[in-house]
Amino acid sequence: MYTIRELFLTLQGEGAQTGMRAVFLRFAGCNLWSGREADRATATCTFCDTDFVGTGGPGGGKFADAATLAAAVAATWGPSPAHRLVVCTGGEPLLQLDAPLIDALHAHGFRIAVETNGTIAAPAGIDWLCVSPKAGSTTVQRAGHELKLVFPQPALPPEAVETWRFDHYFLQPMDSPHQAANIQAAIAYILDHPQWRLSLQTHKVTGIA
Ligand SMILES: C[S@@+](CC[C@H](N)C(=O)[O-])C[C@H]1O[C@@H](n2cnc3c(N)ncnc32)[C@H](O)[C@@H]1O
Ligand SMILES: Nc1nc2[nH]cc(C(=O)O)c2c(=O)[nH]1
Ligand code: SF4
Ligand SMILES: [Mg+2]
């Protein structure tokens, strides 16, 4: 059984795959926050921009098995067989994404991308792994395709993660009332540290989901 908050077609808004057509598979639930506003201040992850509670989003629901969920992902993509991309996110997708679902999505021709907080080791078979570490948590998954550090997190500066084994290193300015200052701080940091690239949340600029 998989518990899905929402399932929708959009463009990947963040990171190295920005702009690509993708089905977003948003799993319900997270291990770093309950998702309730009353708990936000005492959560491990306090800046989350996403509603991942329950199954009430577009395309959400409980899916009995991997084949049923993969068929729903394929139907959301549509009939075109080429360039199929699914982005598994949440909430924390690695609480639920398992080998049967990875195999079922591959069987439908999807390249599987994952957005994870890195506190759970990734299963085999993920085609694009994006790890976004959170201050106050223990990141066990320290290798992957892209590291996407929400910036700034004073207790988790880029220097603390810059030697982890990734192909791409992104700073993503924290969306908050201080967003404009966070963008300028990220730009200033990258001008001094060219290992890093800027990731803007382009879906928020364009107004798509
Ligand atoms: C909602 S999370 C879901 C996946 C996973 N739980 C994680 O944290 O990576 C998706 C992405 O949004 C980022 N994110 C969450 N809140 C943000 C915010 N306020 N500003 C910028 N990025 C944010 C996360 O760091 C992560 O890269
Ligand atoms: N368009 C779009 N791109 C995204 N990239 C990561 C997202 C996420 O919430 O994980 C996200 C999202 O919610 N929408
Ligand atoms: S770990 Fe990810 S989903 Fe969980 S609260 Fe933080 S940003 Fe949101
Ligand atoms: Mg989002």
Give me the CATH fold name: TIM Barrel
Q: Structurally, how many domains make up the residues?
A: 1
Summed over residues and divided by their number, the pLDDT gives a mean of 98
Ligand set = S-adenosylmethionine, ligand 2KA, iron/sulfur cluster, magnesium ion
Number of helices: 4
- For the record, the CATH class is Alpha Beta
Shape: globular
Named at the architecture level, the CATH assignment is Alpha-Beta Barrel
Instruction: Give the beta-strand count.
Output: 9
Binding site for Mg(2+): 50
Subunit structure: Homodimer.
Binding site for substrate: 11-13, 26, 89
Cofactor: [4Fe-4S] cluster; S-adenosyl-L-methionine; Mg(2+)
Topology:
Blueprint: E1 2-11, E2 21-27, E3 61-63, H1 66-77, E4 85-89, H2 99-107, E5 111-116, E6 128-131, E7 143-151, E8 165-173, H3 179-192, E9 197-198, H4 202-206
Parallel strand pairs: 2-4, 4-5, 5-6, 6-7, 7-8, 8-9
Antiparallel strand pairs: 1-2, 1-3
The structure holds S-adenosylmethionine, the ligand Nc1nc2[nH]cc(C(=O)O)c2c(=O)[nH]1, iron/sulfur cluster (SF4) and magnesium ion (MG).
Magnesium ion (MG) is lined by residues 49-50.
Description of the molecule:
S-adenosyl-L-methionine binds at residues 47-49, 91, 132-134, 172-175. With 209 residues, the chain is α/β, with parallel strands linked by helices. The protein has a single domain, classed as Aldolase class I (TIM Barrel). It has helices at 66-77, 99-107, 179-192, 202-206; strands spanning 2-11, 21-27, 61-63, 85-89, 111-116, 128-131, 143-151, 165-173, 197-198. Strand 8 (165-173), helix 3 and strand 9 form a beta-alpha-beta unit. The longest helix has 14 residues, at 179-192.
